[in-house]
Design a protein that fits this description.
The protein has a single domain, classed as lambda repressor-like DNA-binding domains (434 Repressor (Amino-terminal Domain)). The protein is 48% helix and 0% strand. It contains five helices and no strands.
């Protein structure tokens, strides 16, 4: 199994790959995982296959069930560029 991406998700295919890999790490089938997330099996399949028109609310629901979060930031953004110290970030 490939290493999970850390950071940037640039398209629906890479998002689907992350979801699939995390689901498999939990040894869950799509049927089991869909039930756990409160979505349909078809939705999980579509998401894992990178369908670009899946519902954002359901995607967030699935990511939450996986213990993942979405963080948005401007491209090229760094803490240093904003003058934020490491200690400030962790509080």
């Amino acid at each position: 199994m490939e290493t999970l991406p850390n950071g940037k998700i640039l398209d629906t295919l890479s998002l689907g790959d992350v979801v699939r890999q995390h689901r498999k790490l939990q040894c869950a089938t799509q049927v089991e995982f869909a039930s756990l997330c409160g979505v349909g099996v078809r939705f999980i399949s579509d998401l894992e296959n990178g369908k670009p028109t899946v519902q954002v609310g359901k995607v967030l629901q699935v990511l939450h069930s996986l213990g993942l979060e979405v963080v948005l930031k401007p491209r090229g953004w760094t803490h240093a560029a904003l003058g934020i110290e490491a200690a400030d970030r962790d509080s």
